[in-house]
Amino acid sequence: MRKFFINLLSTLPLLASANDGVFFVSGNQLVPVHETDIAVSKEVLTIGLSDNGFASVDVYYEFMNRGQEKTVQMGFEAEAPYNDGEPFSPQGIHPHIKDFVVEMNGQPLSYRNAVVATTIDGDTEFQPMDLSRWKVNDDWMGNVLWDEGIDSLQSYGYAYLFEATFKSGRNIVHHTYRYRMSFSVDECFSVPYWLKPALRWANRQIDDFTLRIKAENTTKHFCMADSLFSGQSFRIVEGKGKMRHVHHLRWDDVDVTYLECVLRNGTVEWHADNFKPIDNICIKSADILLPWQQDTKAEDLQVYYDGGGSYYPWRFMPWSESNNPNEIKDTFKARIIHNLPYAHRGHVFKNKKLKKFFEGQWWYMPEENY
Predict the structure, then answer these.
(1) What is the distance between the alpha carbons of residues 280 and 181, in angstroms, rounded to a whole number?
(2) β-bridge mates for residue 286, sequence order
(3) What b/e string do you get for 66-96 counting C-beta neighbours within 10 Å, with b at 16 or more?
(4) Which one, of 179, 160, 175, 173, lies nearest residue 283 by Cα?
(5) What crossing angle do the helices spanning 352-359 and 331-344 adopt, rounded to 10°?
(6) How confident is the model at residue 312, as a pLDDT?
(7) What are the pLDDT digits (tens) for 61-110?
(8) Cβ count within 10 A of residue 107
(9) What is the pTM of this model?
(10) Long-range pairs of 122-128 with CB within 8 A, sequence gap ≥ 24
């Protein structure tokens, strides 16, 4: 029987999804490879949602070095993709991360890539794996490698490693990249981001933390489990948007409270002092809140349409005769589904029935100039 390392648990949710979704990669924090006495005094994390299938990340860090100037090895871990069809990269270059740049005190930092073993808690040691031993096994999809000699599996990730010289006092690090959004039969897009690795810095917290989520030149309707954000409120700081809290009974009968938000060319922001992240976040398209039943009624519809124009959850796929706009017997329901993309962008309807229906949806924001 194959022996699984500690990381087996991290693969189970992906294996359970079979071929019903594609996981590309999570966003992540910059972390020290070894123990350090340098603290994170400030972080402004901006995640942009666009229509091109990528999320953009812009992170502004302020680090405090209260000692002498020192060089610290830093790392960035990117989970291996699952079910994406891309070949394994022995060079450690992640196929779904683009334009990876780190600047420190105004100067770019060079980096090297490696394949590293990952752990369920994100506490990666960043030691390159011996790829003469660990190989891809075609019996396992995606994010595990196999050591035939000891008959064991190990989940892995792609690491970006660099050395950073911290001067005494305040140091500013600016980190930007783009990564491909995941998706599944339940959601048009999914943007996971790891926050917990930030606890590896000396103060075991982020003294001053701001999260910003932007809809860049588009409209995005999304949700996040709000357990991490209890006690603090989100606010719309740019553009147009609406928010509410909703309870959702998941397919596994777990009741989750979500912050549901719709943004049009806007930004929603959350701030906390002395932030100790107890969990990571995942920004999901709001269609995950649709009832699980396939015979969803028109009046229960939420926006499930992704601005890219191609993704529909399984309950609205063309092979579902009861919901295909081209085959549906209920003409009004077909018109609702057909017009969702336009309502999503704020189209003002002249048809009285459509106008009444969409004005009754909490997320609808009419745009006279659309």
Answers:
(1) 16
(2) none
(3) eeeeeebebbbbbbbbbbbeeebeeebebbb
(4) 179
(5) 60
(6) 44
(7) 999 999 999 999 999 999 889 888 888 899 999 999 999 999 999 999 99
(8) 8
(9) 0.86
(10) 122/28, 122/77, 122/194, 122/196, 122/197, 122/280, 123/197, 123/200, 124/75, 124/77, 124/157, 124/159, 125/33, 126/33, 126/73, 126/75, 126/77, 126/159, 126/161, 128/92, 128/159
Residue 112's alpha-carbon distances to 73, 94, 159, 285, in angstroms, are 12, 12, 8, 34
The pLDDT value recorded for residue 288 is 78
93 SS3 class:
coil
pLDDT at 357 over 90: no
Contacting residues for 325 by C-beta, under 8 A, at least 6 apart? 334, 335, 337, 338
- Mean pLDDT for all residues in the chain: 81
- Residue 286 is encoded by which pair of tokens? 């709001």
Measured distance CA(218)–CA(307) in Å, rounded: 7
Note the pLDDT tens digit of each residue in 35-56.
788 999 999 999 999 988 899 9
Predicted local confidence at residue 243, as pLDDT: 92
In one-letter notation, the amino acid at residue 123 is D
Measured CA distances, 17 to 21, 68, 311, 348 (Å)? 7, 49, 18, 39
* Per-residue pLDDT, 141: 63
- If residue 163 lies in a helix (H) or strand (E), which one and from where to where? strand 152-166
DSSP 8-state class, residue 2: P
Round to whole Å and give the CA distance between 46 and 176. Answer: 10
Q: Is the pLDDT of residue 322 over 60?
A: no
